[in-house]
């Protein structure tokens, strides 16, 4: 009987404040969709870092004849065979180095032609202008500075470059977008909470007579508050469900179909459906609990008779 009464009161409250309930659902859905999107963006950046950082190398570029005439670091001339052997031997002795690969000037020229063969500048570049290099794969890419400190400035070495820097601007951009999404999510969350509190206030005010009678006949505070809390939780649950749909639809159209980023950017390792599905229970839980807690706090003041 009590459960039936609570459910009937929930229905009455939702019908009386239909417009505000709809506004709560929309604001909760948008804020939670942004929250879930931010979580997925952070995971995407992490996945890309793990994927690409494992593939990029530290490059030690060696001096050639052209560098000897133009670069101050190569003032002592082009790298010698003995210097190359010593550099390679020292690299292989380092515990943080996983593998070392030598790229000759001819190989560098071949790779350059494969990448820029159709450009105007590629037609005037010659093999003797290309630099020999060592491609060093580290066990921990974060320890690039150890290699840079050990080999930068050595005779025969023109420069030491960490290829992660090429990707860092992209990751910084994505992290910036993630922070912006979290900021908008926070704003939408505040709006949703304000709407929830106002909806509870209006509902409590419109039923103040009933709640006063219930208080007089001995009903507990929790029993009186329960319909209002359930109303807010139900609206939040619907908002969370809509947010889940938005996340699924967004993943479908952005990556698999529609814009189809997976086809257009095949070198990017996009997060899978398992990552999206793993976030949905959290979105639903927040959508259910956040309005209920906000309603409970608001009711402590507005249901006093």
What does this structure look like?
Keywords: Cell cycle, Cell division, Cell membrane, Membrane, Transmembrane, Transmembrane helix. By secondary structure, the chain is of the alpha+beta class. It contains 11 helices and 4 strands. It has a 4-stranded antiparallel sheet. Helix 2 crosses helix 9, helix 2 runs antiparallel to helix 11 and helix 9 runs antiparallel to helix 11.
Strand content: 5-15%
Please summarize the sheet with the most strands: 4 strands, antiparallel
Q: Note the run of SSEs as H and E.
A: HHEHHEHEHEHHHHH
Rough outline: elongated
Q: How far from one another are the termini? A: 25 Å
Biggest sheet, spatial arrangement of strands: 2-3-1-4
Tally the helices. Answer: 11
Number of strands: 4
- Uncertain stretches of 5 or more adjacent residues: none
What's the average pLDDT?
Answer: 77
| Helix vs. strand class | alpha+beta
**Rounded to an integer, what's the Rg over CA atoms?**
31 Å
What portion of residues is helical?
55-70%
Membrane topology: Multi-pass membrane protein
Family: Belongs to the ABC-4 integral membrane protein family. FtsX subfamily.
Main location: membrane
Pfam families: FtsX, FtsX_ECD
């Amino acid at each position: 009987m009590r459960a039936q009464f609570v459910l009937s009161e929930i229905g009455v409250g939702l019908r009386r404040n239909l417009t505000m309930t709809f506004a709560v659902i929309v604001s909760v859905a948008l804020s939670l969709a942004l929250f879930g999107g931010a979580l997925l963006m952070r995971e995407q950046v992490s996945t890309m870092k793990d994927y690409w950082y494992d593939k990029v190398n530290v490059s030690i570029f060696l001096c050639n004849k052209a560098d000897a005439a133009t670069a101050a670091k190569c003032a002592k001339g082009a790298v010698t065979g003995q210097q190359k052997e010593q550099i390679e031997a020292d690299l292989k002795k380092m515990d943080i180095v996983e593998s070392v690969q030598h790229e000759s000037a001819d190989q560098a020229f071949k790779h350059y032609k494969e990448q820029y063969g159709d450009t105007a500048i590629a037609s005037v570049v010659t093999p003797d202008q290309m630099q020999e290099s060592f491609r060093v794969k580290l066990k921990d890419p974060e320890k690039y500075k150890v290699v840079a400190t050990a080999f930068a400035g050595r005779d025969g070495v023109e420069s030491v470059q960490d290829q992660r820097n090429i990707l860092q601007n992209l990751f910084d951009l994505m992290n910036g977008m993630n922070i912006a999404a979290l900021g908008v999510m926070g704003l939408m969350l505040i709006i949703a909470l304000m709407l929830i509190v106002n909806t509870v206030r209006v509902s409590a005010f419109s039923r103040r007579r009933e709640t006063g009678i219930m208080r007089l006949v001995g009903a507990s505070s929790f029993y009186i508050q329960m319909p209002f809390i359930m109303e807010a939780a139900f609206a939040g649950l619907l908002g969370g469900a809509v947010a889940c749909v938005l996340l699924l639809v967004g993943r479908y159209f952005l990556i698999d179909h529609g814009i189809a980023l997976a086809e257009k950017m095949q070198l990017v390792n996009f997060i899978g459906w398992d990552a999206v599905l793993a976030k949905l229970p959290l979105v639903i839980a927040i959508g259910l609990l956040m309005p209920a807690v906000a309603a409970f706090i608001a009711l402590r003041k507005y249901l006093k008779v």
